[in-house]
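Predict both folds.
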Amino acid sequence: IGNTVLHILVLQPNKTFACHMYSLILSYDRSKEGPGSLELIPNNEGLSPFKLAGVEGNTVMFQYLMQKRKQNLWSFGPLSTVLYDITEIDSWAEDQSFLELIVSTKKREARQILDLTPVKELVSLKWNMYGRPYFCFLALFYILYMVCFTMCCVYRPLKPRPGNRTSSRDNTIYVQKMLQESYVAYEDELRLVGELITVIGAVVILVLEIPDILRVGAAKYFGQTILGGPFHIIVITYACMILVTMVMRLTSTTGEVVPMSFALVLGWCNVMYFARGFQMLGPFTIMIQKMIFGDLMRFCWLMAVVILGFASAFYIIFQTENPENLGQFYNYPMSLFTTFELFLTIIDGPANYDVDLPFMYSVVYFAFAIIAALLMLNLLIAMMGDTHWRVAHEQDELWRAQVVATTVMLERKLPRCLWPRSGICGREFGLGDRWYLRIEDRVDPNKHKMMRYTEAFKAQDRDNYDKGSEKLESNRDPLCKKELSALSLSRNTSRTSSHRGWEILRRNT
């Protein structure tokens, strides 16, 4: 019951009341330490009250709980050293990481915790010491891997076409070699080495991605933009296309160019994932993802309706015409592709002034130009501009969340020998097996001095009030009027002295 009440208090809108009640309940907890403590018992979702405060974005409760966990090591004037307990915060030994919970939640308030002590210092320490070097090395290794795959595709085994052309529009001069003919010369052996590297890399990608999908869940793993959801879809599809190409090569099946071309596009597009390691480029990948999976996906439904309608009309108009004079609409698939190019203004309206064109072509093309070029394209630009404006206001916050997600990902995938645990073990200071992060804080001397003045003036007012209360209690006889007037004079004098002190403090401020 006590643990349930603690979880309810974390969700309360009245933060001050929740903090006081939280302390009151913990004061009756018999097992304040160890696994039986109320603060360490998780709910049905596996969240302790501390993790629940982070997921809900309750910054007041989070700071309150962190103040209870900290240990003052020493202080000397404006300098002080504090040990913050990072047992539940650090993702090194946590199955359900506090940092991963913050970046995966949909509440924007939760990402504000990344700017609070000691989360900010812990993430900065992990990223600067291990995350950034490993991530840059991984980006360089992936680019070299993609260069190797691209060279294997460019120099894939081809041979001249043996038969004759069956149509005047047939333009094929090379065909794919059979498996027995593909690895004969020395150049083929070099290409074989690159192909083996490509296939091994695809297998490694699947081995690293599939356990995370099973642990987190497909919907959450692919749906979170900050966690790199779309890029995970891209890299898994790329690995599958590589394996399909390998099977088609081993079975001498024609048509390997289809999965190979898809793999090239997806593999090189995945390079944008590594832009999150740089503050200048990281927010732009967020913008691209939100535009593609937000604005562009909705716009594609409208675009598909317009293209289908007008492509069918163009095909019907030119169905009775000679395709050699205007071949852009000679069959239905070509009509769809030509209409798509016209929609995006990639090409101008096709016309052949040496022959008479149907009258309806001019009418339909006029309506298509008004609807597609003037109306719908400007609508898409306006939608993307609104998305850019919204993301630009929180780009720094989103980039920090990207850094946290990348750090947690690298920490989970790399061996423990390459990523030691951050912080200091509490046994060094007699604090048990918990881990702490030492943070040095420097207080502004002027602010420190004004705080001492404030406390001194408050103490003076409190002393004067206590003396006046004692005199009021000791004088209850009929002659108290005279003493009350003297007390009033004394209180006015003390208030005047205190008022002067407050005026000095106000002027200094």
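Second protein follows, with its predicted structure tokens after the sequence.
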Amino acid sequence: RKQANFRGLFTKELKSLMYGFGDDRNPANDTVNVMEEMLVEFIVDVCQTAGGPQRKTRLSIEDLRRALSRPADAKKLARMEELLFMQEDIKRARAQFEESELNQSKDF
């Protein structure tokens, strides 16, 4: 299978993360490149595990939950669940905000 080229895709975010975790404001490009290779490898591994032997083209949240259900990935799974909860919470808040805006505009 042909490897896709993801070089530079996460550079900006990785530099910020590395700085946030105590690295230099402008980390060495070689260091960022190695971190990016590791990140892409991790994402590919999780996606391949989640896809299972049938190699699905679309992954569901349940597929990712199964892939991260190993004891070694418990923190990652907990973080994913937290982010999913926050995403739903934000959706609910936006819906309430839009609903209240509609009600206010009808009052005028």
